[in-house]
Amino acid sequence: MIAVDWGGSRLRAYRLDGQGNVLASRQGAWGALECGQRFDEVLVATLGDWDDSAVVMCGMIGARGGWHEMPYLACPIGIDEIARGLQRLPGGTSDGRDAWLVPGLRCAEGNATPDVMRGEESQLAALLDAMPAGEFRVCLPGTHCKWVRVRDGRILGFSTSMTGEVYALLRHRSVLGRLMPAGDDALDGDAFDLGLERARSPGGLLRHVFEVRTAALFDRLPPSSLSSFLSGLLIGHELRGTLEGSSAGRGPVHLVGSQQTLEPYARALARQGMEVERHAEDLVARGLHGIWARRASSP
Amino acid sequence: MIAVDWGGSRLRAYRLDGQGNVLASRQGAWGALECGQRFDEVLVATLGDWDDSAVVMCGMIGARGGWHEMPYLACPIGIDEIARGLQRLPGGTSDGRDAWLVPGLRCAEGNATPDVMRGEESQLAALLDAMPAGEFRVCLPGTHCKWVRVRDGRILGFSTSMTGEVYALLRHRSVLGRLMPAGDDALDGDAFDLGLERARSPGGLLRHVFEVRTAALFDRLPPSSLSSFLSGLLIGHELRGTLEGSSAGRGPVHLVGSQQTLEPYARALARQGMEVERHAEDLVARGLHGIWARRASSP
C-alpha cells in the first residue's frame, strides 16, 4: 500500500511493504491548501510508477475545502475506532487506485469549542501500538503544535498551540525580524534559556516578545541570538499554558518531529526536569499502515 | 512653530500658533523607516509653504537608523527634563529651518532589559500639563501599545505590549486571517467580550488564538465576528499581563488614540469596572509645543 501524509503545505508519500516497512518515499509538489483543488492531478503525478492499488491518506486533504471532507471523531478514541472511520474516496483516482481517507479527531478538553487535529492521529497510531500500558504525554511540534494525552492505547485528549506559526510571523514579518540576520536560525542555547526564564515571569507574552527588540537595542544579545531568545519565549509560554494544572502522566514526554524541530522542545523540557523520548516524523507511514491493517472489510 | 510626529510608518506635521493651538495639519508621504534615509527631502516637501522657522520632531525619526539618533532618557522624568534633552539637528533643514528632536524615554520597570518609547513621551507631555496631582494610568494603543504610570506631572514608568502588531499579523498573514472576510473589521461586542473572557481562563495566548479557528470550524461564530473574537483574546491577554500585580492608580485610565483604536480598549476596561477618559491622538502637537516652550535657551 501507499501511505500519504498530505498537509496544508506539504505532501509526503511512502511506499510500504506488507509489514509496513518503508520501501521508498517521495515528496509531492503541492500542499493540500496550495494546489488549487487539483488534488487528483497532484497525487497521480507524485505516485507515478508505483503500482500499488491502495492509497491511504491523512492530513488537511480531508479538511473542508480539501479533496473529500472527513468528520472529526471524538476522543477518547483508539486505533480500531479510527480504522472503522476510514472512508473510500468516491471514484478513486484517475489512474485507477483505491484511495482512502483517515478521519480527523476532536476533543473538548477544557475548551469552549472542541480542539481538532488532522494528520497527527496517524502519527499517534504508530506510537500507540508500541507503547506499554500507562498514561503518557506526546508532543508533536510544528506550525500548530499538538500536546496529546494517551493512556493504554487510547488518545484521551489534546490541545493545540499556534507556537510555530506565531514564531514564523514574528521571525519573518514583524519589526523583530528586521533585527535578525537572514538565513537559517542556529539554536543559541543560552539565549533560548533566557527566553524560557523570561516566559516564567509576570507580564505575559505580548510584553515579553517586545524584549527581543530592547535586548537588541541595548546590546544584551547579538543579532544572531535574537531568534533563539524569541523561540525560548514562545516555547516557554507554550509549556506554561500546556503543562500548568494538567496531569503529568508517567514516564518521558514523547516528542515527534524532525531533529531540528525537536531540539528546542527537548531542551526546554529537560530544563523543567522532564525526560523526553524522540521519534522521527516519518512514523506517520507506520501509523497509516496500522490503521489500514485494522480496517473492517471494505464496504 | 511646527510640530512633527514622525513615526516608523507615518509623518504628521502641525502648524501651531504661539499658544500651541493647531492652525493646520498635513500628512507626509513617508514614515521614518520607509523613506530610504531621504529625511530632509520628505520633510521639506511636507512643510512646503509654511514659513515657520522652528520645527520640533518626535518619534522614530530620532531612532538609530533615523535622521539623528537621540538618547533614551531614564524615567522617572518630567517635562522640564525632556525639554532640556532637546537636540538641534546639525545643519538644520535644506530650506533653512531650525529643526529639533525630542529624546526618547527608557525605564527598567520589572524588566530584564529597559523598555523604551519614542513619540509617546510627547503625547504624554500634553496630558501631564493638564492633569491634577495624583497617580494615573495612561494607555496609548497602537502597533506597540504603551501602558504608562504618571504621578504629579512625572512619568514614572511604562511597559510595551506588541498587541497591535500581533493582531495585524494574525489577522492578515496567518491561517486565522483566511477565515475572516476581507475589508474593515467592525467591532462585534459579543464576540469581543467572549475573547476577553477566554483570555482570563487557563491555557495561555498561544492556545487561545487557535480557538478562532475552531470557533469557525464548529460554527460558534460567523466569519464576520472572528476578528472581534481575536481582538478580545489579545486585548484580554494584554490587560492580564499589564494590570495584574501592578498598582492601580486613582481615577480613570486615560486612553490616547483614534476613536477606532480606543473603542475596544474602552470596552475591555469598562468590563473590568474601570473608568476611562479618552484623548485624541493629535494632542501630540500640544505636547511638542509644551516641550519646546520649556526648553532652556538654545545652545
Automatic annotation (TrEMBL), chains A, B:
Pfam families: DGOK. InterPro entries: DGOK, DGOK_C, DGOK_N. The keyword Transferase applies. Signal peptide: none annotated. It comes from the Bacteria. GO terms for biological process: D-galactonate catabolic process. Keywords: Kinase, Transferase. Gene3D superfamilies: 2-keto-3-deoxy-galactonokinase, C-terminal domain (3.30.420.310), 2-keto-3-deoxy-galactonokinase, substrate binding domain (3.30.420.300). GO terms for molecular function: 2-dehydro-3-deoxygalactonokinase activity. This is 2-dehydro-3-deoxygalactonokinase.
